[in-house]
């Protein structure tokens, strides 16, 4: 194991990754570079510096990636109305490619030959980190301590800390939670604990980002979202950067009890797992984006997008952001968004985000044709007969030849 | 126009179709058979008998098709988690094939050579009725008065009534509504009026089947749905027939402000239209069905279902229920539902239908593998390395040969 | 019918479209502009000028569009390995959007308010011309004489000619043929005559562009095709323009009996029809393109292309070249072609075009990994175990829980 | 390694698997059961008995599975017109699920707790065997010697034989071939040797099942294939069992130089490999099946089949025959084949299999409508106008609102 000289670690500053720093140094006898990013997880990242220094780390990267995260990953994904398995907004999945890319870029900058992460061997995140790393630097060595070491219980981890004088006071907050959690600007997730029984309802005090619908205000909140080329650029007429948009919508959504989700999902590694998610802003964005598209997209491109979406969601969920198939799908999706401009008006109320209005200068809604009133000849109802007759022709021929139709 | 001898009309008992009875008799000099069905639209159908008799109709069919409607059309559609354009639950679309089939069967029984309906030339329903009719009886003559006559305003219709002594007191209720409405056990729809401006919020007094979320009870309602082969067979342990299930869920959903929808959709005839829908029971069913599938479906069949769903929805929306492509898709869908058994627990509260638990004897969720705790060797984390390495191989080779990956 | 002032006609110079010139002048009392294009149909286009003049046409457009046709339509289509219904290379379909575009551009240039064509009311070409025209100039008036007039037999046409002093000596060659034919650089097609019986073998003397395999040379011909970004840019090392490439391959293919096809296809208007086609160059191009892609495309983008291809083929066949869905698909396809560079070596022999070699500087084929010999550690066979184990996990869990697997 | 008591080995009787018998006995100290099947590979299977006995095997299974192979695997696959990556007829892939199933059934019959095979760690076959095994018997132990041992060269294998007194005279024929080959009734494959250079043309003496097109007869052979529900049941009117059909077509095809293929394909394990294949009968069957479908399938079900086919091919290629997704796709495919009955006439000549006629009592080809002659009103050409107008409506609205269409 002596062939690794320097490794870049995705470092949260928490207990687990602190142990990993030490373990890498010991096991591989290599230098460790730490990389800590603010992607909106809601915790200070700067304290990671002192902790890393205390562990003897010399090269420490601490970065605010919130804008880049939303602009280059979350926004492109939402252009596709992406949902995994009909429910999940991919909050964890979409953060991994950015981390993978920065890990590799830092490896290149610091001359590191390996990267490492704190994801377990049962989950999707290891796959996402590593597929990204291999795609961007094919010769990189990946070290996944959870798949290698035998520190597979909290007791062993604590013993390791004691033995190696790693201060255990950090991350006490997390220690108290019975759930495995992950957060970024798009969502916070919960797994484990009593959630491992899919019949058990999540406990109210688990949720952190939203009030319960019951506790939300009695009065609805209305909000107007302005779209340019499929992306939100302003809220209530106020121009904002992508991550500001999401922060604002998280606040609005969370205050109104919006975005809680409780599902059983299929992991890429082959098992089902139960997870709870809070995605307040994303839940609003998904419905609003469909609404602005309903006015501005052509029917056939909209339907084709819907047919491609499950595949696109799967690609992201499974960790193939940095792949030719993702780029190919993105090219198709982005091609459709040029005219997706306008404003959507949403009503937020006790858990629901409802579209109540939409308008656009690029609207393809034609009142003169759609009207129930006299349309002054804009549409010739007689055309419908030929339309139906020829669409029915293949069915009529088949039935005429005795082919069973029911 | 003398070649039509007898025509079967889809007759609601309302003003429009009453005018059509007379118009058909006059214009085609033919006998009219009326067909009125209770598919859960919430109005008495029996009064249609007297009205038809008053118009000189001799063969009058009045039928309760609620059970058949839900069992043979709504339920199979929900097995696919069917949604059109990401939002619409196809409440109108799914009722048409049943009406088309009965029209043709009655035509066969009564020796009629034509069928007729009251749908306009701008909408999807004419297509759905007629595609079904042609598929089931290829030589049938279809008469669509709205595409033929010049009674294209309410004034002209009223004048026609007066001239032909058609009593206009019926359907006074509908006359007052500014909306074009359609209802069956699955939903009620609203179009026209001020909805023709997609920016205008629907007025509260438009909605008929649900209270507003604001007016819904302060306490949530919990309900347990039992599935067999993808269909709900019991509510809170109480066995029910399909239409009883939907009636019950409509009541529960409506009482809790669930199932309102306000969208712009793409019609098959080529225009966008704005519609509002109330689908209380269906909204609950959709989420619940996904939840029971999340436990009982294999990942790949679930994903394949999701990829096929938009096509299946389009087939139904466009009116191709009676087609080989619908049967082909249905065969694939139904093949997956054999083990979709179990119970889903839902929370209904002020507009939201939320899954809070699911269980099944056919569950594929394996706690011993999914657990965050020690799994006693049920899953070997080291397998993940090979899994990732080979999945990454194509990406690594490409990157190694200088292929750009970002 | 007096509201048409000027109409641009797709004019071949043949009998039918000459009659149409006169019929338009008479029926609509409007000026006729003729448009005749050389798209490689193998007939002189210049004679159309005199004929048009003789019919009183003042604005006559005669253009050589061969290069544009292959570069902007045929080549993009072949990037997708496009085949309709598993067999048909879309030779007729792909020429229509170009004609439609020029008709509209000429209408704009000449101030015409209508366009016209000589396609019948039973075929796909009317749809393709008209969808293109409406998409590019939504207010245009389209006149389709074959759907309007009663000159629906050759006798009536001849009588019309005599009556209006249209010289009938032109197109005598076509008159003798029992087949309806259409040709451009990509193919020549045959319909009608004894082909209307799908069991009857096409007669040898029907085929015009290729010798029979039996009559082809006893020695194979080898040819090397150089690709850049998915398009052929050189043959046997000789740089050529797109239309020169196709002309050359038509010659090589035709000489070797390559590219004959005899199928029953499904028309967009709802009927089946039997057609025979000669596509010598296209048949070579299709196989060669797949071969260069086999070296240079990533697996997943290649598979995704294959999944999208039938839809793309349908879009073109049905006449939706000028549509958002075609642009969306094209964006995805073109995204994949950046590295599709290299050389393919083909063997042409008595009806077969066989790939015998392919090479590329962007090749993703890695001999060091693929080899059956010792690979010096490039690939760790032990990775396969984890790969298989995790891919099998969902199946094992299901089987372990008693789920039937066969 | 002492926990394996009995292992069922897929035993060819050749050198490699004979070594495996001994190696399993030695390494695992377990009893070995051999299973040798005739699936049409063209070699006697009975000699495997003596060889196995000589190696001390007590339970020896030798079976003729040709009929089952073609009836239950090859035929269902051909109903989908299955091709992998546009070229490959899946000859190797489709034989694996049958072998996997028999291995597991024999394991169950003999009380074995493990299965073993002679596939390498680089290929697809290991995946196919093992996915099948795990799906059918989730607790089975799989032993893949090529991934475990260090006998990774022919020299080491020979040394092992000498050391363990394994007679090396068998399989001398194969030893001489520079290619890795695999054969069954559907095809014979070649990999390795000079094929590892994708630019190198395969040598003529490599091919074993077909004459070269150059050496094929100067006179074409005609053959008529009778279909019932998508499967061939008779050749030239002579009823035959499935495997007899394929044997006969292999003979006819091979004699006429039909079915050679030379491709670079993407393996599931992530690398590209070059392979040559001879699939004489399959090549004829593929074209013939499309031809009978062209007459008897509805357009939309045919198109949907084409859209699903690449996925279905991938499922089989990757080894997921025994999976819910394959069953789901098969249900859809088989649903379409009920009326796929009739006769196809093929011309076989020097490498080409050409369809020259097709007929069916379930034909949906309607001469009275398709005809270029007077159709006596079967089709109203005026219907086409409405059909086009409404299909164009969305494009016209978009263009009318200034949306760019080119």
Automatic annotation (TrEMBL), chains A, B, C, D:
Q: What is its EC number?
A: 6.3.4.5
SUPFAM superfamilies, alphabetized: Adenine nucleotide alpha hydrolases-like, Argininosuccinate synthetase, C-terminal domain
User: What residues does the Arginosuccinate synthase C-terminal domain cover?
Assistant: 179-397
Q: Which residues form the Arginosuccinate synthase-like N-terminal domain?
A: 6-167
| One GO MF term attached to the UniProt entry | argininosuccinate synthase activity
Sorted UniProt keywords: Amino-acid biosynthesis, Arginine biosynthesis, ATP-binding, Cytoplasm, Ligase, Nucleotide-binding
Top-level taxon: Bacteria
Show the catalytic activity: L-citrulline + L-aspartate + ATP = 2-(N(omega)-L-arginino)succinate + AMP + diphosphate + H(+)
Task: Tell me the GO BP annotations in alphabetical order.
Answer: argininosuccinate metabolic process; L-arginine biosynthetic process; urea cycle
Which Pfam families has this protein been placed in? Arginosuc_syn_C, Arginosuc_synth
> What PROSITE patterns does UniProt report for this protein, alphabetically?
ARGININOSUCCIN_SYN_1, ARGININOSUCCIN_SYN_2
Q: In which pathway does it act?
A: Amino-acid biosynthesis; L-arginine biosynthesis; L-arginine from L-ornithine and carbamoyl phosphate: step 2/3
Subunit-level organization: Homotetramer.
Protein name from the UniProt record: Argininosuccinate synthase
Which species does the entry assign this protein to? Franzmannia pantelleriensis
């Amino acid at each position: 194991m002596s062939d690794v000289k320097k490794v870049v670690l995705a470092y949260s500053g928490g207990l687990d990754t602190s142990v990993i720093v030490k373990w890498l140094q010991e096991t591989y006898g290599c230098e460790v570079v730490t990389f800590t990013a603010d992607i909106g997880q809601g915790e200070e990242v700067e304290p990671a510096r002192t902790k890393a220094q205390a562990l003897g780390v010399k090269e420490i990267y601490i970065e605010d990636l919130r804008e880049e995260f939303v602009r280059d990953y979350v926004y492109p994904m939402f252009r596709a109305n992406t949902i995994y398995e009909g429910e999940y907004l991919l909050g964890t999945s979409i953060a991994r490619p950015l981390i993978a890319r920065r890990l590799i870029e830092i490896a290149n900058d610091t001359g590191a030959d390996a990267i490492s992460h704190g994801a377990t061997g049962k989950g999707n995140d290891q796959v996402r980190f590593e597929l990204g790393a291999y795609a961007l630097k094919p010769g990189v060595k990946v070290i996944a301590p959870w798949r290698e070491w035998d520190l597979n219980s909290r007791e062993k981890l604590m013993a390791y800390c004691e033995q190696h004088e790693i201060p255990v006071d950090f991350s006490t907050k997390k220690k108290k939670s019975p759930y495995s959690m992950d957060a970024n600007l798009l969502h916070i997730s919960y797994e484990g604990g009593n959630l491992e029984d899919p019949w058990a309802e999540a406990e109210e005090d688990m949720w952190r980002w939203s009030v319960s619908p019951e506790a939300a205000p009695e009065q609805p909140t209305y909000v107007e979202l302005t779209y340019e080329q499929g992306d939100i650029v302003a809220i209530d007429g106020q121009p904002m950067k992508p991550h500001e948009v999401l922060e604002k919508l998280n606040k609005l959504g969370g205050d109104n009890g919006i975005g809680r989700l409780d599902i059983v999902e299929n992991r890429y590694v082959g098992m089902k797992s139960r997870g709870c998610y809070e995605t307040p802003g994303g839940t609003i964005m998904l419905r609003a984006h469909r609404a602005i598209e309903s006015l501005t997209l052509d029917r056939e491109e909209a339907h084709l997008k819907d047919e491609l979406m499950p595949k696109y969601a799967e690609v992201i969920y499974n960790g193939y952001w940095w792949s030719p198939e993702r780029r190919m799908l993105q090219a198709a999706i982005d091609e459709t968004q040029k005219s997706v401009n306008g404003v959507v008006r949403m009503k937020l109320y006790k858990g629901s985000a409802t579209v109540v209005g939409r308008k656009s200068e690029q609207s393809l809604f034609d009142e003169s044709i759609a009207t129930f009133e006299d349309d002054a000849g804009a549409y010739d109802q007689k055309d419908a007969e030929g339309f139906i007759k020829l669409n029915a022709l293949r069915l009529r021929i088949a039935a005429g030849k005795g082919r069973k139709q029911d």
